[in-house]
Amino acid sequence: AEVLCGFSISSEETMLSAAKKIAAQINGAVLIKGGHFLGDADDLLFSQDTATWIRGERVQNPNTHGTGCTLSSAIACQLASGKSLPDSVRAAKNYITGALRANLDLGHGSGPLDHMFSFM
Question: What's the CA gap between 42 and 9, in Å, rounded?
Answer without folding.
Answer: 13
